[in-house]
């Protein structure tokens, strides 16, 4: 007998971002799996079991949740933001492909959420208002040379760039190196937005220019958006400036 | 006296995707602006005025809403999906930059939502599970040569590509041309996901290979995701296959 597995996006943090669909899936689950920090955001309900695991144990967590669902339970794995963007949905799919036949029979639902770049962009205007890309700066699972190649391609073709996982304790130099790489293609005055813990306690949003970005503090809770040549900054009295990328673009050559 | 303007993301359609934050902003508004099709999704409340406009009148709609807010009203502009992704937030920022000083004093809030590519990706697995870009195929506001350049850059660097606005009545040939362009860089077996009206009545999701993509029906309600060389398809008994992009990538050269 096969049960159900919901991979649930919690949004950027606060329950104001949790969709009714996500709320329902959390309420219906018998077993909840997730990184402890995300599970802590889910209200405790009687009769539910919680299985917290460390941030790095994504595949083991996915396998345990699939096992539990395949045995007939209603299971939810929680993910910050959207589960499909640098989060648990890919890990679950990897396990299903590699795992026993019974895992393919699990009734799998992936429940989208507001991913970090949307929340940060909304706070400052519309920096993702035209063509953009999302790139993880973690070189744990891909070579640094590939990251550089993607930074080159994106910046020279005029994409705005959202950088996920800019810095961690074990990856101290990658962010400054990425900014240096982008500086080969973009003017020093290009706007760069740092959004930290957006949607949660301690939220902080800063706008700097590219030449000051490498020296600006970032951590695993930070999402960085690097503008294109088209991105504009509009000063406002007594408020943060607006940063936005117009819908029209004339640029063809770099 | 300056009022408030909320630019509200409704998500992909169904109210199950509407965040509590968006719900609140809609309830608090005195005047609602938007494309008629989006306004129709918002429940009618006593005392609210509705100002529906055509899909193409984005700047005029933004200007009217800013005028209304600057005169002291609580105003909401509604947007499908997320307002910051190929939607109203950029149009509002454009108007603020070009408009009278009083518009910069308006208390502007942008409320993020689940954008179409997240909803489509969730339905089929995790095609956006690693580095990806989002590109509008509309050449109303940018030259076609720039779109081709971005398609080349994204596909050759290994980004998964989400195509917004693939086809409209006035743009019948662009989608087939874009697929032809991507075929220069990607194998004919590359998975391509078509999600139509996802989250709404008449939802339809199809998975084809790149060589069949140009001949697959798409319209303005369709979001297309073209995989990278890393994107995988996992067959499942009695269900749609899973399409996902693994978190690890070894590719460096094209």
* Mean pLDDT across all amino acids of chain A: 95
| Tally of helical segments of chain A | 9
Residue share in β-strands of chain A = 15-25%
- Given as residue ranges, the uncertain stretches of chain A (5+ residues, pLDDT < 50) are none
| Largest interface, C-beta closer than 8 angstroms, per-chain residues | A-B, 80 and 79 residues
Q: Which geometry of chain A do the CA atoms define?
A: elongated
Distance between the termini of chain A: 58 Å
Structural class of chain A: alpha/beta
User: What is the N-to-C succession of helices and strands of chain A?
Assistant: EHEHEHEHHEHEEHEHEEHEEE
Classify the oligomer: homodimer
Helix content of chain A: 25-40%
Order of strands across the biggest sheet of chain A? 3-2-4-1-5
The value of Rg of chain A in angstroms is 20 Å
Largest sheet of chain A: 5 strands, parallel
How many β-strand runs of chain A? 13
Descriptors for this entry?
homodimer, 254 residues, alpha/beta, 5-stranded parallel beta sheet, 5-stranded mixed beta sheet, 9 helices, 13 strands, elongated
Explained architecture:
The structure is a homodimer of 254-residue chains. In chain A, 30% of the residues lie in helices and 24% in strands. By secondary structure, chain A is of the alpha/beta class. Chain A has a five-stranded parallel β-sheet, sandwiched between helices. Chain A has a five-stranded mixed β-sheet with strand order 7-8-11-9-10, sandwiched between helices. In chain A, a hairpin with a 7-residue loop joins β12 and β13. In chain A, α3 packs across α4. The radius of gyration of chain A is 20 Å and the shape is elongated. At the A-B interface, α1, α4, β5, α6 and β6 of A face α1, α4, β5, α6 and β6 of B.
């Amino acid at each position: 007998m096969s049960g159900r597995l919901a991979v649930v996006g919690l949004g950027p943090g606060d329950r104001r971002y949790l969709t009714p669909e996500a709320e329902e899936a959390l309420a219906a689950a018998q077993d909840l799996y997730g990184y402890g920090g995300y599970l802590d955001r889910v209200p405790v309900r009687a009769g539910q079991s919680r299985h917290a695991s460390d941030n790095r144990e994504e595949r083991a967590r996915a396998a345990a949740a699939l096992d539990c669902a395949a045995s007939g339970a209603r299971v939810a794995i929680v993910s910050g933001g959207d589960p499909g963007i640098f989060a648990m949905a890919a890990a679950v799919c990897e396990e299903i492909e590699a795992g026993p036949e019974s895992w393919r029979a699990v009734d799998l639902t992936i429940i989208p959420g507001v991913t970090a770049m949307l929340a940060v962009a909304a706070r400052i205007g519309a920096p993702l208002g035209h063509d953009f890309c999302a790139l993880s700066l973690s070189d744990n699972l891909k070579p640094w040379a590939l990251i550089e190649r993607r930074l080159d391609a994106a910046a020279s073709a005029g994409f705005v760039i959202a950088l996920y996982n800019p810095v961690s304790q074990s990856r101290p130099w990658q962010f400054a190196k990425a900014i240096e790489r982008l500086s080969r293609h973009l003017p020093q005055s290009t706007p760069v937005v740092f959004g930290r813990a957006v949607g949660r306690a301690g939220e902080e949003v800063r706008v700097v220019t590219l030449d000051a970005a490498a020296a600006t503090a970032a951590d695993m809770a930070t999402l960085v958006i690097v503008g294109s040549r088209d991105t504009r900054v509009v000063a406002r009295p007594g408020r943060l400036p607006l940063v936005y990328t117009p819908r029209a673009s004339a640029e063809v050559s770099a």
